[in-house]
Design a protein that fits this description.
CATH architecture of the largest domain in chain A: Roll
Oligomer: heterodimer
Number of strands of chain B: 11
Structural class of chain B: alpha+beta
Helix content of chain B: 40-55%
Structural class of chain A: alpha+beta
Order of helices and strands of chain A: HEEEEHHHHHHH
Distance between the termini of chain A: 33 Å
Number of strands of chain A: 4
Bound molecules: zinc ion
Number of domains of chain A: 2
Chain lengths: 216, 420
C-alpha cells in the first residue's frame, strides 16, 4: 500500500482527509464525511462529520488500521467501542477480511468505517446500536469468528475449524468438523474447501493466535 | 421570462448543468458556425470551383463534433471550430503541397467574395478562416483525401484486425497534409493520417444509452413530435459530455500560466469516455471519471500510453517521454480535480460551492450560474440564513435512519466491538 494509493482513495470521496507518510506508516487525518452508502452527493451535504486520524501500516490490509476519533465527540469507553487511547474498535478485523471481497482502503472507508460512524451518530441520537454490537473482549472475538466461519458459537468448534483451515490444504483424514465422526474426505469436504478459499491459512492462523492471546 | 418558469437549482447536478451550459457554444453561435461552414462547403462545390470535380465536402471534427466545446477563458479569445475539407481524389493526383494550395486557392476566393477583413492564414496542416470580431470563433479547415484502405492495412499490420474490419471506426480515415515533412512536395502514398470520424463514432459508442435517453427527454420537454432518431446529437448533452466540459474548464483555469504544458483535451476526453459507464447524472459521471480515468493510461514498458481508441498504435501522450513535466502535470491536475470536485460534491451543500472549486472553474462563470438558478445567491446577505435553516437536524436523522435501513438490507460488513 503506497501513499499514492491512499491519496487516490480519499481525494474525491473524502476530500477533507489528508494523507502523509509518517515513518513506516501512512497517517490520514481530518474530517470524515458520513454519507449514505453509494451516494456521490446529497443536496444538503454529508449527514455528519467526524474528526479522525487513521494510522495505516504499509502492510494494509494485512495489518489492521488504527482509527482514532480526535474531536472529543465520542467518550473513550468500552460502551462506545473506543479504547482508552482513543483507538476505535471499528470491527473485528479478521471477520472483515474473511467476509468482504474488496479489501482496498476505499472499501474500508465506505464499509466498516462508514458503519461504525453511522452507528456512533445513531447512538448519539437514540442510545442504540443500529447494527448490533459485539460483546467486549474474548467473547466478541469468538462471536465474530463463528460468524465468519458460519458455525454456531462454540469455542472448541471454532478452534478445530481454524486449525484445519491453517493448513495449506485441509487434510482429508481429519475428522469432519461437523461432528459426524466421519473423515473429512467422506463428509463436508467440498464445504471446507470453499471455506478454505474464503479464509486462507494466514487469516485462520491469525485468528488462532488472537484467540490464544486472550486465553493466556 | 416570468418568475414562474425560472429554473431553480435543487441539487449539485442542477448547478453543474448550468455551469456547463455556460461553457458551451451559445445556440445562436452554434447555428452561425454551422451556416458559415455550410456556406464554405457550397462555395467549394459550386460549378465554377476548381475543386468541383472532386466533390469537396466540409464537415466538423474535434470538440465541436463531440459536443465537448469549452468556452475560452477570456472573452477576447475565440472558440475554434475544427473542420475537415475532404476531396474525393487520390494521392496520385495531388502532393500534400498541391492539395493544400488547391484548397487554399478556393478559400482565398471565398474570403474575397465574402469581403472578409482578414485573409485565410496558413498553418502546418490547416487553413484558418477569421471572421469579424463579433463572431467569436474562427475555423480551422483541414485539407484531406480519403485514405481508409491504407489506414485499415496499417491497423491489420499492428494486429488490430477488429478495428480494421469495423467500418464505423476505420472506414472514414483520411490522409492529411503537413508542411514540415520532407515528402510534402512529392507524389507519394506516404501521407500523414488521421481518423476524426472514427474517433467520434467511438466516443458516441461510449454514451449510446444516455444519448438516446437525453433525446427522449428533449422531445418530451420541447413537445416536438419528431422521433428520437430525428433529433441531431448536438441538440442534447449527456453527463459524459457535461463532465468533460467541466474538466476541461478546470484544466484551463489551473494551467492559466502554463498553457504549453497543460494536459491536452484529447487525453482528458479519451480517458473520461473510457471511465464513463453511462451514469445518469453529472455528479455520478464525475465520480466515475475522476476515480478511474488514470487506470486507462497503459504502461508499455516505461512509456505512458494513452492509446487512440481507433488506432491503439498511436499514443496521445507521445511527448510525455521527452517532456516529463507534461506527465507530471496530468497527474497533479487529476489529484487537484479529484479534490476540488470532491469538496463540492461530498463536503458541501449544493448551494455552497467551495472557494477551491470557484477558483478552479472561474469566479465569474460560477457566480453567473449561481445567480441564475439560486435565488438567494443574487443577494449575498440572505444566503447564510438560508443555509442555516435548511441544514435541519431532523433531516439528518431521517437520512441516517434511511442509510441504516439500506445498510441492513444490503447486509452489513461489521459490528463494533471493544478489545477489552
Ligand atoms: Zn461433516
Amino acid at each position: 500500500m503506497t501513499l499514492e494509493e491512499v491519496k487516490a482513495a480519499i481525494a474525491f470521496d473524502q476530500p477533507k482527509l489528508r494523507a502523509a507518510r509518517d515513518g513506516p506508516n501512512i497517517h490520514v487525518g481530518g474530517s470524515y464525511l458520513l454519507f449514505e452508502n453509494g451516494a456521490v452527493a446529497k443536496p444538503a451535504g454529508p449527514i455528519s462529520e467526524f474528526d479522525i486520524e487513521i494510522v495505516l501500516s504499509n502492510r494494509f490490509p494485512r495489518h489492521e488500521p488504527k482509527v482514532f476519533e480526535v474531536g472529543g465527540r465520542i467518550p473513550r469507553c468500552a460502551d462506545r467501542h473506543v479504547n482508552p487511547d482513543g483507538d476505535c474498535c471499528v470491527t473485528v478485523w479478521e471477520h472483515w477480511l474473511a467476509c468482504a471481497t474488496d479489501h482496498s482502503f476505499a472499501a474500508f472507508l465506505n464499509g466498516p468505517a462508514n458503519e461504525f460512524f453511522l452507528g456512533q451518530y445513531w447512538f448519539e441520537k437514540t442510545g442504540k446500536w443500529p447494527f448490533g454490537a459485539r460483546p467486549h473482549g474474548q467473547k466478541g472475538l469468538e462471536e465474530a469468528y463463528a460468524d465468519a466461519l458460519g458455525i454456531p458459537n462454540r469455542k472448541n468448534d471454532i478452534i478445530y475449524h481454524l486449525r484445519l483451515l491453517s493448513k495449506d490444504w485441509p487434510k482429508g483424514h481429519w475428522l469432519c468438523p461437523c461432528g459426524s465422526g466421519k473423515l473429512l474426505r467422506h463428509c463436508h469436504r467440498d464445504d471446507l474447501i470453499a471455506l478454505h478459499e474464503r479464509i486462507p491459512p494466514r487469516i485462520a492462523e491469525r485468528m488462532l493466535r488472537r484467540l490464544k492471546s486472550y486465553t493466556r | 421570462m416570468t418568475k414562474h418558469d425560472r429554473k431553480i437549482a435543487r441539487t449539485h447536478d442542477d448547478v453543474f448543468e448550468e455551469i456547463a451550459e455556460a461553457l458551451d457554444v451559445p445556440p445562436s453561435k452554434f447555428k452561425e458556425a454551422i451556416e458559415r461552414y455550410e456556406s464554405l462547403g457550397t462555395w467549394l462545390d459550386r460549378d465554377e470551383s476548381t475543386l468541383s470535380a472532386y466533390n469537396p465536402g466540409i464537415s466538423p471534427q474535434g470538440s465541436f463534433l463531440l459536443g465537448t466545446v469549452t468556452r475560452p477563458l477570456t472573452d477576447t479569445e475565440e472558440f475554434d471550430v475544427d473542420l475537415v475539407c475532404l476531396l474525393k481524389a487520390s494521392k496520385t493526383e495531388f502532393t500534400q503541397k498541391s492539395l493544400k494550395a488547391a484548397v487554399g486557392h478556393e478559400i482565398a476566393l471565398y474570403v474575397r467574395a465574402h469581403k472578409m477583413a482578414k485573409p485565410a492564414e496558413e498553418g502546418r496542416r490547416c487553413w484558418t478562416l477569421h471572421y469579424a470580431d463579433g463572431a467569436q470563433f474562427h475555423m480551422d479547415t483541414l485539407p484531406a483525401l480519403p485514405d481508409e484502405q491504407r489506414y485499415q492495412a496499417m491497423l491489420k499490420r499492428y494486429g488490430y484486425t477488429d478495428l480494421a474490419n469495423d467500418l464505423a471506426l476505420s472506414g472514414q480515415a483520411i490522409a492529411i497534409t503537413d508542411n514540415t515533412l520532407p515528402q510534402y512536395d512529392e507524389v507519394t502514398d506516404d501521407w500523414p493520417q488521421s481518423n476524426p470520424m472514427g474517433y467520434a463514432a467511438w466516443f458516441r459508442s461510449r454514451m449510446t444509452v444516455q444519448l438516446a435517453e437525453r433525446k427522449r427527454a428533449f422531445t418530451k420537454a420541447q413537445l416536438v413530435t419528431a422521433s428520437v432518431d430525428e433529433i441531431p446529437d448536438y441538440k442534447v448533452r449527456t453527463p459524459l459530455q457535461r463532465a468533460i466540459q467541466l474538466l476541461k474548464r478546470h484544466r484551463d483555469c489551473i494551467f492559466v500560466d502554463d498553457g504549453a504544458h497543460k494536459p491536452i483535451s484529447i487525453i482528458i476526453t479519451t480517458l473520461s469516455a473510457h471511465a464513463y459507464n453511462e451514469e445518469l447524472t453529472i455528479s455520478a459521471a464525475l465520480h466515475s471519471i475522476l476515480t478511474r480515468m488514470d487506470q486507462y493510461i497503459e504502461y508499455r514498458g516505461d512509456v505512458a500510453w494513452v492509446a487512440n481508441p481507433v488506432n491503439p498504435a498511436e499514443n496521445f501522450a507521445d511527448n510525455w517521454a521527452e517532456e516529463p513535466r507534461k506527465r507530471q502535470n496530468f497527474y497533479d491536475w487529476l489529484e487537484q480535480a479529484r479534490h476540488d470536485f470532491g469538496l463540492y460534491l461530498r463536503a458541501s451543500r449544493f448551494d455552497a460551492v467551495p472557494q477551491e472549486l470557484i477558483d478552479s472553474l472561474g469566479a465569474e462563470l460560477v457566480d453567473r450560474a449561481l445567480k441564475a438558478i439560486i435565488p438567494a445567491a443574487a443577494s449575498p446577505l440572505a444566503a447564510p440564513a438560508i443555509v442555516k435553516a435548511a441544514s435541519n437536524n431532523d433531516d439528518d436523522v431521517r437520512r441516517a435512519e434511511a442509510a441504516i435501513d439500506e445498510r441492513r438490507s444490503a447486509g452489513t460488513q461489521s459490528k463494533p466491538w471493544a478489545k477489552s
